[in-house]
TrEMBL record:
Gene3D superfamilies: B-lactam Antibiotic, Isopenicillin N Synthase, Chain (2.60.120.330). This is Fe2OG dioxygenase domain-containing protein. Transmembrane segments: none annotated. PROSITE patterns: FE2OG_OXY. Keywords: Iron, Metal-binding, Oxidoreductase. One of its GO terms (molecular function) is oxidoreductase activity. The lineage of its organism: Eukaryota, Fungi, Dikarya, Ascomycota, Pezizomycotina. The keyword RNA-binding does not apply. One of its GO terms (biological process) is small molecule biosynthetic process. It comes from Cladophialophora chaetospira. InterPro entries: DIOX_N, IPNS-like_FE2OG_OXY, IPNS-like_sf, Iron_ascorbate_oxido_reductase, Oxoglu/Fe-dep_dioxygenase_dom. It comes from the Eukaryota. Coiled coil: none annotated.
Length: 417
């Protein structure tokens, strides 16, 4: 049985920031902030500041320490509202220990400091689009997101990158086997990576449950059940130093603009900077997402966008339209976030010749089960707002998407080398 978020709220004493949902799906939406109704005149003519502002930090500490239903509703709603407006969120107290994150970056540096001959022992198979093994600089080409959001393999828009990666998954996933270095080359790397992968999954489970609650789904485990521990992917990424002049002239790009073919992505980043997200509704305009110690960045992927029925329509982000004016409730919420990695902030540490600092990041890609149908969840459509996308399986969608990253590959599931 599906219950609306409004019904869930009526059963609880919920007093923090909420979105009041009218029973008439075609009536105006009313925004309530701590029991005070916000009128049109209380908002500025332009939403410029709102669009450019970083998202709030969603604190999961109550969730990870036995939160009440009221607290879980507050966290879930704040997470959904933030992703609705921005496509991503900062999350603090997410459950992955800070010491473990610090250790993960140390292992990442150890791996990429290895001689190229050692790293090439685990080179990704050229006939597979599975994200497993080592990718040398420039091999993984990011499709131009604004052209290929649907994962159409016939579109040949690519952006040259300048990073190297090591991708891994669960050893339980026999269809996409990992490629591990011999133990003597980097002792302890496999053991730690496996442990870190597991801790990221634990954090993911809480996030998926919070999203379900925030979307108004009675069964908070429903979205989680569409996923499985062995199917996700963990990536260690290294962006070597590069001349800023080469980036300015577009001769090289650290990572081109793209969206993720995931449900969600959890990103741990160092303090270098350079990550940018596109402003929703303003194509090609990006804002920097500065690293905040102790947080991860969670962004919505294309799969979750399809489940929640596409781009948000509740808020109008336009200087010509006031934020509350003529708003009709539409139950589609989450948008896939377009992001890229550009030049880091320019400061004295760039050094002679204006060379960028090294950048390390660790994304954890959360993928649906390949046979699960990607179709609009019942809570995210109605008669006036029907599903925007035809049903498909994740495997069908991901196959085309993977071929965009690796054009020479012929298969989706298994590496043949």
């Amino acid at each position: 049985m599906w219950k609306s978020y409004e019904q869930r709220l009526q059963a609880t004493a919920f007093s923090s920031t909420i979105l009041t949902l009218p029973r008439d799906q075609n009536s105006l939406a009313e925004i309530s902030f701590f029991n005070t109704t916000a009128t049109q005149d209380q908002f500025p003519e332009s939403s410029e500041a709102m669009q450019n502002a970083p998202p709030p930090v969603v604190d999961f500490s109550p969730w990870t320490s036995g939160a009440s239903l009221d607290q879980r509703l507050q966290i879930g709603r704040k997470l959904v509202e933030t992703c609705h407006q921005k496509g991503f969120a900062y999350i603090s107290n997410h459950g992955v220990a800070p010491s473990l994150v610090e250790e993960a970056f140390a292992w990442s540096k150890k791996f990429f400091d290895l001689p190229i001959e050692d790293k090439m022992q685990v080179k990704r198979g050229e006939d597979s689009v599975a994200f497993r093994g080592y990718n040398v600089l420039g091999v993984q080409k990011v499709p131009l997101a604004l052209q290929v959001r649907g994962g159409d393999p016939s579109i040949k828009g690519f952006s040259p990158d300048f990073n190297e990666t090591f991708d891994l998954g669960s050893d339980e996933n026999i269809e996409q086997p990992n490629k591990w270095l011999p133990e003597h080359v980097l002792p302890g790397f496999r053991e730690f990576s496996t442990k870190f992968y597991g801790e990221c999954w634990k954090a993911t489970q809480n996030i998926l449950r919070a999203l379900a609650i925030g979307l108004g789904i009675e069964d908070e485990n429903l979205i989680e059940r569409l996923h499985s521990y062995p199917l996700n992917s963990l990536s260690f990424k290294h962006y070597p130093p590069v001349l800023l002049s080469e980036l300015d002239r577009n001769e090289k790009k650290r990572l081109g603009a793209h969206s993720d073919m995931t449900s969600v992505t959890l990103l741990f980043q160092d303090n270098c900077g350079g990550l940018e997200f596109e402003i929703p509704g303003r194509r090609g305009e990006f804002v920097p997402i500065k690293p905040i110690p102790g947080t991860l960045v969670m962004n919505v992927g294309d799969a979750l966008m399809r489940w929640s029925n596409g781009k948000p329509t509740l808020f109008h982000h336009s200087p010509q339209v006031r934020i509350i004016s003529v708003l009709k409730l539409q139950p589609d919420y989450l948008q896939s976030a377009i992001h890229r990695v550009q030049s880091p902030p320019r400061d004295p540490t760039n050094g002679p010749g204006q060379i960028t600092r090294r950048r390390y990041s660790i994304p954890y890609f959360v993928l649906p089960k390949p046979d699960k149908t990607l179709e609009c969840l019942p809570c995210c459509s109605n008669e006036t707002n029907p599903p925007k996308y035809p049903p498909t399986t994740y495997k069908e969608l991901a196959t085309g998407y993977g071929k965009l990253f690796y054009p020479e590959a012929d298969v989706y599931s298994t590496s043949k080398d």
